[in-house]
């Protein structure tokens, strides 16, 4: 049973330049093209991960987010696209080759197969999060995470021998129990303040500590499996990611889990580029500008925009043979946390404690902002000198780079307490090497195993860095004092040309997305009608003869021969 996506205009934004997939769904794994539309609803981790990564090369995700990736790859072989079985596909942009450039015209008896030209060059995310010249074909890191002799494989072998799935589940349950206790303390602090039993200064301290701890728990929940087949879903732990006023769980699963983790330090690491946008402001405007921006998002902005944001995580899909469309899931947990944040503000406002709320808001916001960027050296680009601690044979090893480019953070010196005070960044190196683990307790328990594998490979294990005295001064100097950087040009928005009928038999083509620059999106320049109520759209890219976008009356646009 195949699935199709509604036309890209329903999801793509002409304001951000975001271009999302259109046509037959596909995913690239180790150079092979797959169609996982039937498998995604059966995936033990949930279908969300496939919806967000459609049109991408997901090789790194398969190899780094599974305990036994080789077994998973063999199992998924049945979903390889038949016309490409056995062929290696390298990610390129969907631009049909011209006949004059050596591209052979496609046979006129059906739509063109998924080919090497079909991977999204901008990964299906707003281009302003990427460098203007970013191209997924060439800019994604080509690191070693598959070789049985890689560091990741050695760590996985040792870990599977020492811990069973049941052992790790026990750590996750203990972690969740502590999270519930912290959540209860957070709610109780607000109630005690309103009742007059808690002084304002104590309320501020408790709010900062509990919000930081709960956001760290939400961070781990973003990495967990999610049974998202129900209409109303409430993975409450995931939405805790938002409670520190910095994160956004609706997009965190993509930007953080699927892009930052596998592509740390590369052009696709949107965690770095997101915070670098602050540097476009004058230093004198950064603190007030960022604070007011987050205040607006906290109270009104994000709830009003959440429906549009949700489209990027849960695009609507239609089954042609079904009587009705499969609806989007509704993230009720997201709305609960957002409502609670507003309730806290209103409760403090009407009871005369608004100053205490403002103080805890500002401290929580900036403490967690600096905390998020302190776990990596985002102040500088990665250089050979930073990778010098890695033995030469492992310089291109994915796990070795994850360990080298991540920092463990310490606050009071106890790793288990620091886990919550640092929002889960106490065992940060283990978390980056084992991103599929679901809790900080599992990370801490696994650290000994990871350190043993690193010692055998000759990779030194540095001491944790002090959050307050080592990392905070560096990130504060960088994000608050460095000179302003020029903003990238806005996305190109061309006016829609007037339509004119296409001559019968004329060459016609369409590109669902291209690489004509940051934010570029194709606009049709000619349109006409074909027999049977089909609409012919002619776009800018010149395709082989007869290749066109064909739309049945009232149906989705499909690429194929007219």
Automatic annotation (TrEMBL):
GO terms for molecular function: oxidoreductase activity, acting on paired donors, with oxidation of a pair of donors resulting in the reduction of molecular oxygen to two molecules of water. Keywords: Membrane, Transmembrane, Transmembrane helix. Residues 496-511 have a biased composition (Low complexity). Residues 95-116, 486-525 are annotated as: Disordered. InterPro entries: Cyt_B5-like_heme/steroid-bd (IPR001199), Cyt_B5-like_heme/steroid_sf (IPR036400), FA_desaturase_dom (IPR005804), Fatty_acid_desaturase (IPR012171). GO terms for cellular component: membrane. Residues 1-85 form the Cytochrome b5 heme-binding domain. It comes from the Bacteria. Residues 105-114 have a biased composition (Pro residues). The keyword Membrane applies. This is Membrane protein. It holds the Pfam family Cyt-b5. It comes from Phytohabitans houttuyneae. The chain crosses the membrane at residues 174-194, 200-222, 341-367. PANTHER family: DELTA(5) FATTY ACID DESATURASE C-RELATED, FATTY ACID DESATURASE 2. One of its GO terms (biological process) is unsaturated fatty acid biosynthetic process. SMART domains: Cyt-b5. The keyword DNA-binding does not apply.
């Amino acid at each position: 049973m195949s699935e199709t996506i509604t036309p890209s205009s329903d999801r793509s934004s002409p304001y951000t330049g975001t271009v999302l997939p259109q046509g037959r769904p596909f995913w690239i794994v180790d150079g092979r093209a797959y169609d996982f539309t039937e498998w995604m609803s059966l995936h033990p981790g949930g279908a969300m991960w496939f919806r967000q990564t459609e049109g991408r090369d997901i090789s790194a995700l398969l190899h780094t987010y599974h305990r036994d990736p080789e077994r998973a790859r063999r199992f998924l072989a049945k979903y390889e696209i038949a016309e490409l079985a056995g062929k290696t596909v390298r990610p390129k942009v969907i631009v049909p080759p011209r006949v004059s450039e050596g591209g052979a015209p496609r046979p006129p008896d059906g739509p063109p197969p998924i080919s090497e030209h079909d991977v999204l060059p901008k990964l299906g995310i707003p281009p302003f999060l990427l460098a203007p010249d970013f191209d997924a074909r060439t800019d994604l890191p080509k690191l070693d995470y598959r070789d049985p002799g890689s560091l990741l494989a050695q760590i996985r072998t040792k870990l599977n021998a020492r811990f069973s799935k049941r052992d790790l589940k026990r750590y996750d349950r203990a972690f969740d129990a502590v999270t519930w206790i912290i959540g209860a303390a957070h709610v109780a602090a607000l109630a005690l303040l309103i009742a007059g039993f808690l002084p304002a200064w104590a309320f501020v301290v408790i709010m900062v500590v509990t919000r930081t701890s709960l956001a760290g728990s939400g961070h781990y929940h973003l990495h967990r499996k999610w049974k998202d087949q129900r209409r109303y879903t409430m993975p409450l732990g995931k939405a805790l990611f938002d409670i520190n006023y910095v994160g956004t769980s609706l997009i965190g699963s993509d930007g953080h889990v699927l892009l930052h983790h596998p592509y740390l330090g590369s052009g696709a690491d949107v965690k770095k580029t997101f915070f670098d946008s602050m540097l476009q402001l004058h230093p004198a405007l950064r603190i007030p500008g960022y604070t007011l921006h987050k205040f607006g998002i906290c109270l009104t902005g994000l709830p009003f925009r959440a429906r549009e944001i949700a489209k990027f995580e849960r695009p609507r899909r239609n089954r042609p043979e079904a009587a009705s469309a499969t609806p989007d899931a509704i993230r009720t947990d997201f709305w609960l946390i957002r409502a609670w944040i507003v309730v806290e503000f209103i409760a403090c406002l009407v009871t005369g404690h608004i100053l205490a709320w403002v103080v805890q808001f500002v401290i929580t916001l900036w403490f967690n902002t600096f905390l998020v960027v302190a776990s990596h050296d985002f102040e500088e680009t990665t250089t050979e000198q930073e990778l010098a601690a890695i033995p030469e044979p492992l310089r291109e090893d994915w796990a070795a780079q994850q360990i080298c480019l991540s920092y463990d953070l310490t606050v009071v010196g106890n790793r288990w307490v620091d886990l919550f005070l640092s929002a889960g960044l106490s065992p940060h190196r283990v978390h980056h090497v084992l991103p599929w683990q679901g809790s900080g307790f599992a990370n801490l328990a696994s650290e000994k195993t990871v350190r043993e594998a690193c010692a055998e490979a000759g990779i030194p294990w540095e001491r944790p860095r002090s959050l307050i005295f080592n990392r905070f001064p560096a990130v504060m100097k960088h994000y608050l004092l460095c000179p302003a950087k020029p903003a990238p040009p806005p996305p190109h928005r061309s006016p829609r040309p007037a339509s004119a009928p296409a001559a019968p038999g004329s060459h016609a083509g369409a590109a669902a997305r291209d690489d004509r620059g940051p934010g570029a999106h194709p606009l049709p320049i000619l349109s006409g009608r074909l027999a049977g109520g089909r609409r012919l759209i002619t776009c800018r890219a010149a395709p082989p003869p007869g290749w066109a976008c064909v739309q049945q009356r009232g149906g989705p646009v499909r690429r194929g021969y007219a």
